[in-house]
Structure formats: structure tokens, C-alpha cells
Amino acid sequence: MAEKRYVMVVDIKRCIGCHTCAIACKSGNNLPNEVWWNRVLTFGGKDMDTPHGKFPNLQKQYLTLACQHCENPACVKACPAEATYKREDGVVMQDYDKCLGCRLCIMACPYDSVRTYNEDNPEYYMDFPIGDAMVEPQQKGTVSKCNFCVDRIDNGLLPNCVDVCPAKARFFGDVEDPESEVYKLLKSNKHTQLLADKRTKPSVYFLI
């Protein structure tokens, strides 16, 4: 029997660019002020949430971007301390206690700004922790990134971004399970992966 492999599926036709996924990720994982693991990019004008074209012929579309949890992750190969590693279920993790802060994982990753280096002690707008109690605290001098809300999925819950999406544009599950929603979606819909030519085999798929 095939091993479990978690994937994220995003339907970009459904995405309304509300940034709810990004906010839920930030709050649920108690991320420091300037740290965002999940971002919403705009295919349109030069600024966020602006269309391109000339009225009334305007076009705009959104793309959410976070760690792609690659099957063949360049970051894991680059890390000299084995602080970046991949679990058996495909989730690419970051061990803060092992991280040297060398940022080689950032340089090796082909996806722009999906990892953040905490140069200073993490600072927060709130004076108390928010989000899930299971979340590991951020540390100075380490790199952090999306981990598919691993504490939630290990307890049978969905990642924060999937759980809150008002447009139902995000899906998560075991792609090796023929009965899973992600398996059926990928089987019956055209889809793409970001920078597939880099041969990292991303575990985030976009329905098109």
C-alpha cells in the first residue's frame, strides 16, 4: 500500500483574494509582526488587488503562495544542519533548535519569499500569544515557514488556511488515498504546479 502523502489543492477560479487564509495562518501560528507564511498575490496591475487592462476590459486573478512542500525539496539538500527535513507524509519541516541561521535553505528554494529569517527576537503586536496552543514558538536567528499546520493535521484537523476559506477554494488531504477529496479533484480537473520545471515536485496544486 502506498505511503500517505499530504497535498494542498487551490482552485484559483474560486479564490476571491480576501486574504482570510493569510490572516488565519498568521494568527493561528502566532507569527511575529513582519512574518507571513502565506501570501496572496494579484495577477493584474502593479499593485495588490488592482486589475490590468483598460475599462471595461479589466482582468484580475489571485494566487496564494506559501511553502510548496516539495517531494524533492532543494532546501533539505542545502541545509548543513539537517534542520530542514521532510516527514514520511511529505510535510517539509523546520527544526528551530537545529537551525544555524545560515539561510542556505532560503537561497536554495526556487519560490520567492516563502521562508523568513528571524534576525532579531520575535516581536508581536499583542502582548500575549494567540492562535493554537500547540504551535512551537519562533526563535531568534532561525528560519521559519509554512508547515501545513502540522500540529493541527496530526490531531485530525485541517490547516488553518483551509479551515477558514470562505470561497471553499482550498483543499487538503492524502493524495495517495483514492477516496480523498484531493485525489478526486486532481483526477478530474486540469491543474498545474508552480515552477514545475525546477523538478522539485511541489505538493501544492492549482486547479485551472
Overview of the structural elements:
The protein has 6 helices and 12 strands. The protein has helices spanning 20-28, 74-78, 104-108, 150-153, 160-164, 181-188, and strands at 6-11, 39-43, 52-54, 57-59, 61-65, 84-86, 92-94, 115-118, 142-145, 170-174, 191-192, 204-207. The protein has one domain: Alpha-Beta Plaits (2-Layer Sandwich), CATH 3.30.70. Helices cover 17% and strands 23% of the residues.
What's this, in brief?
The chain has 6 helices and 12 strands. It is an alpha+beta fold and 208 residues long.
Proportion of residues in helical segments: 10-25%
CATH architectural name? 2-Layer Sandwich
Number of E-type strands: 12
Give the termini distance in whole angstroms.
30 Å
Q: Write the element-wise H/E pattern from the N-terminal end onward.
A: EHEEEEHEEHEEHHEHEE
Question: What structural class do the secondary elements suggest?
Answer: alpha+beta
CATH topology: the name is Alpha-Beta Plaits
Radius of gyration: 17 Å
Strand order of the largest sheet: 10-1-12-11
CATH class annotation: Alpha Beta
| Poorly predicted sequence stretches spanning 5 or more consecutive residues | none
Biggest β-sheet strands, sense, barrel = 4 strands, mixed
Broad shape: globular
Mean pLDDT: 94
How large is the count of helical segments?
Answer: 6
> How many structural domains?
1
Strand content: 15-25%
